[in-house]
Structure of STAS-like domain-containing protein:
Amino acid sequence: MIDLAAVESISESFADELFGVLVLERGFDFVIKHVKIINAADDVLRSIAIAMKRRRSAVAA
């Protein structure tokens, strides 16, 4: 579980290095099943989702 309550913003590059690389190394389904993000602002979630989607697309290609 990752609590992002104190996080006001996150760069897409940081989101990619953390969540995107997890998707690349473990797979999208694994990350969705095993990583729970709580208390995140919408903008933070959006950056994470973009990074994960980009890596998921790269793996599928």
